[in-house]
Amino acid sequence: MRIIHVYQNDWVKPVLTMINKANVKEERYVYTNSSALLTEKEARSCIVRMLMQPWFGGEPVPIDKLTRSLRVLSLSRKDRKTIGSLIEDYEIFGGQLVWKSEQLPELGKLVRTVLGITDKDIEKLRSANELEELAASRLKKMNRNKLQDICFVMTSVEEEDNDDI
Q: What is the per-residue pLDDT across 23-58, written as a single tens digit (0 to 9) for each?
């Protein structure tokens, strides 16, 4: 039993209170679940590597790194939900994503969103090299071939039906 004084803002005097000491082993607290914080460039790179996996190949991005990356990025609720769903698919299928050719415009929009590149940004560019440089500035350590693949996907547009021919 321990006696302590309890104070409250409007009370003139403290109240003596008896409490039982908790039956716990007292020891120094050490935080053990430390995970490195990702920069925005690293987070974008992880998500883009997952989305572009069919082009990039290589080792799958660890799922915990993808979920941490998703938390770092400033995305709309809808985009966050879409990418979260793709991360789940990526995990279920062992680090593999499959994109149909008709899904390329959707993938391109998603990659632009992750990179923070708008349609207006693309309209202002004068060459493919400028787009490649813009993408490189938003990512961490991406080689030229991968950047070209990213630019190809980002600029994919839906094909129009030409039934009138």
A: 888 888 888 776 678 899 999 999 999 999 999 988
DSSP state of 103: G
> How far is C-alpha 150 from the chain's CA centre?
17
Question: What's the structural domain count of the chain?
Answer: 1
For residue 90, count other CB atoms closer than 10 A to its CB: 20
DSSP letter assigned to residue 62: P
Q: Which long-range contacts (CB under 8 A, 24 or more apart) does 55-61 make?
A: 55/146, 55/149, 55/153, 56/146, 56/149, 59/95, 60/90, 60/94, 60/95, 60/96, 61/90, 61/95
Q: Which domain holds residue 78?
A: 40-154
Q: Is 93 domain-assigned?
A: yes
Indicate whether 77 belongs to any domain.
yes
pTM of the full predicted structure?
0.74
